[in-house]
Each structure stands twice: as structure tokens, then as C-alpha cells.
Write a structure and sequence with these properties.
280 residues, alpha/beta, TIM Barrel, eight-stranded parallel beta barrel, 9 helices, 10 strands, globular, binds zinc ion
């Protein structure tokens, strides 16, 4: 297996348990939460935790790793308190990543909740500039399904956020979620549509900016703006879409992370095997 593929795994019982869970699935890269995803709490890690985690990852050849930010973070919000809380939380996650030797922290840019697109994008850029991104960690903006006032559904919007920020652009990258792209209206199944999608990435953000892929199928039709993940091949993106995605040389070297649905049946192992099956 020369590709990097793994799953989002739980850290319950200690961060090194994530490596064991990944091993069971057969993954060689992975993603974790640094705390509890529906609360503001981010676990604090000691040097010892970091060393153990890294040793264990190296031993099992699981690299790189990603921390997914909590779902509460919203840098686009016009509300000062929520904005500040979001910055503090992301900072704690970035610090946890540095402590654990995790290469990437990915977050959903947020929703402007009525303040308007321009204001929302400006706010996101302002929030990014407040962060102190540690050395060896890259902050990734994830494309979104685009529901309601959520920002970041198009590559163009992600570009605006990155360009508005004054932070060294080397410290910022993008994570592409396939379910979100499909929900946002990108065509992933037809060869031509998929090529257009790649072209838009090239033109708007640059392929070198894409650091991680989230592989999720979608329960809903293209353009639905709904964020309902489905097992690989069982949804609207289907085998056809994933065949394009996992065989695109543009994505060849990227870590691919499965996030669907949980550690239940058909489960990550089957999803991972499905991806390997679609590889040509
Ligand atoms: Zn995702
Ligand atoms: Zn999603």
C-alpha cells in the first residue's frame, strides 16, 4: 500500500490508544480530536504523551496525523465572545498538535450568521491572524457543504480567507472533504466535471495548498448543501466518484482520512478496503 489512508479514531483511554485503533482498521495515517468535539475543552498534553504517541506512530508507520477542531469553533461570527472563544480553542488545539507532533489542525471556517459574506470572511482572516501557529504545524481550512450562512463552500471563498489573512501563507493550507464538495455542487462522478473541480482548485488555491483529503460519501444529491456522510460507494458520489478521486495523480501523495460513519458496521475497515479496491 503506497497510499496514505486512515480514519478518524477516538482518543478515549489516552492518545496512544488512537494508534491501536488505527492499526486494527489497517490505516497508515489518521485523525483525532484533541478534546471533546462538542465542548470547548481541549486536553492538555505533557511531553511524555507526545513522545509516546510519536514513538507508537513511527513504530506502526502511521504518518501524518491530523487534529480535527471542535465543531463549536466559528471564526466568522459577529459575536465577540464566541469569536474569542473560538480563537482560544483553536490555539489550544494548535498547541496540542505541537505537543503531540501532529502535523495538521483542520477546522471549519464558520458561519457569518447574518453579518454578511464579506464581514464573515474578514472576520475569519482576522481570527487566523490572532493565532500563533507553532512551527511544524499547518492550519487547514476545510471546504464546507455551504448550508445557511456557512462560509467556505467554494474554492474561491477559501482563497479569499487565506489571502485576507496576513499570516504567512506557508502556515495555512486546505483540507478537501469530498462529501462537502459534492454537497456544495461540485461534480465528482463525471470525468469532465471532476477535471473542472481540479482546475478550480488549481486556479483558486493551488494544488500545493491542499494537504489532506476527507473521504466521505454523501447521502444527499449534488448541490444539496447538506452535510450527511455516507459509507464509501454507498452514497451519491458512489464508486464512480471515488474512482476519480483516489486515482487522481493530483491527490496521489495526500493523506486520505475516512470520517464515516463511526467505528460501527460496515465500519472503517470495510471503507478502507473499498478505497483500496477502487485504486487502479
Ligand atoms: Zn471532513
Ligand atoms: Zn462533514
Amino acid at each position: 500500500m503506497n497510499i496514505r489512508i486512515g480514519a478518524h479514531v477516538s482518543i478515549s483511554g489516552g492518545v496512544e490508544k488512537a494508534v491501536e485503533r488505527q492499526e486494527e482498521i489497517g490505516g497508515n495515517t489518521g485523525q483525532i480530536f484533541a478534546g471533546s468535539p462538542r465542548t470547548w475543552s481541549v486536553s492538555e498534553y505533557e511531553d511524555d504523551d507526545g513522545e509516546k504517541f510519536q514513538d507508537s506512530r513511527d513504530e506502526h508507520d502511521q504518518n501524518p496525523y491530523v487534529i480535527h477542531s471542535t465543531y463549536l469553533v466559528n471564526l466568522a461570527t459577529p459575536k465577540d465572545e464566541l469569536f474569542q472563544k473560538s480563537i482560544d480553542c483553536l490555539q489550544a488545539e494548535l498547541d496540542a498538535a505541537a505537543q503531540l507532533g501532529v502535523e495538521y489542525v483542520v477546522f471549519h471556517p464558520g458561519a457569518h450568521t447574518g453579518s454578511g459574506r464579506e464581514n464573515g470572511i474578514e472576520r475569519i482572516a482576522e481570527g487566523i491572524d490572532e493565532l500563533d501557529i507553532p512551527e511544524n504545524v499547518t492550519l487547514l481550512l476545510e471546504n464546507t457543504a455551504g448550508k445557511g450562512t456557512t462560509l467556505g463552500k467554494s474554492m474561491g471563498e477559501l482563497r479569499e480567507m487565506i489571502h485576507e489573512a496576513e499570516t504567512d501563507s506557508e502556515k495555512i493550507g486546505v483540507c478537501i472533504d469530498t462529501c462537502h464538495a459534492h454537497a456544495a455542487g461540485y461534480e465528482l462522478r463525471e470525468k469532465e466535471g471532476f477535471q473542472d473541480f481540479l482546475q478550480e482548485i488549481r486556479e483558486d488555491i493551488g494544488l500545493e495548498k491542499v494537504k489532506v483529503l476527507h473521504l466521505n460519501d454523501s447521502k444527499d444529491e449534488k448541490g444539496s448543501e447538506k452535510d450527511n456522510h455516507q459509507d464509501i460507494g454507498c452514497g451519491e458520489i458512489g464508486d464512480k466518484g471515488f474512482r476519480n478521486i483516489v486515482n487522481a495523480e493530483e491527490f496521489e501523495d495526500l493523506p486520505m482520512i475516512l470520517e464515516t460513519p463511526s467505528e460501527e458496521r460496515p465500519g472503517y475497515k470495510e471503507n478502507l478496503e473499498k478505497i483500496l479496491e477502487l485504486r487502479e
